Amino acid sequence: GAGVSQSPRYKVAKRGQDVALRCDPISGHVSLFWYQQALGQGPEFLTYFQNEAQLDKSGLPSDRFFAERPEGSVSTLKIQRTQQEDSAVYLCATDPSGGFGDEQFFGPGTRLTVL
Amino acid sequence: DQQVKQNSPSLSVQEGRISILNCDYTNSMFDYFLWYKKYPAEGPTFLISISSIKDKNEDGRFTVFLNKSAKHLSLHIVPSQPGDSAVYFCAASADHGGSQGNLIFGKGTKLSVKP
Fold first, then answer.
1. Which of the four pLDDT bands, split at 50, 70 and 90, describes residue A95?
2. pLDDT of residue B50
3. Which of A15, A78, A88, B25 is deepest in the core (most CB within 10 A)?
4. CA of B37: which chain A residue's CA is closest?
5. Does some domain include residue A62?
């Protein structure tokens, strides 16, 4: 497809369960960002990759959150031992230019609900 | 402490009239500003941007104004159309043209354009 895709679109997890959220970027896009959007809030930065290198993970809220992009394309955001406060929409965004670009292209997001 | 603030959670406008969405920021290091539009169950889509070296940028019905001294920007939509009904997010970046481009978002303003 032409855009950023994310899967699953919806995920319900029991508290304490591990989850993995996938992002398929636009082909050739160098930069990849993960954001967390809580209900009624704007997206908040989690982490940033340039190709396979994770250059900034300052936004990850705890060590239960882990992201990878091993081949510089698909990225996975993993949350271990999920908590209710992890419930949010997780957005992936990509940029063709290594952070120099004018805009980021967002996927539709994964809505995570932790019971 | 919110660095990007959208103080109006909602705005209702009649079709054909002007919509003005406002955004304030606190970080003087921000050098690039963007507006994103978001429909339900979709990711944000880029609308228009402005560099801090400009005070106005126009694209069709959309114009963004930047007042650096007041740390204020606004998005004007004229004429407003029912299809413009969405949540609008203001976002800012502190390193445009550098190696890191994560965006800081406001909480959004829900625009309703009534026929």
1. confident
2. 94
3. B25
4. A106
5. yes
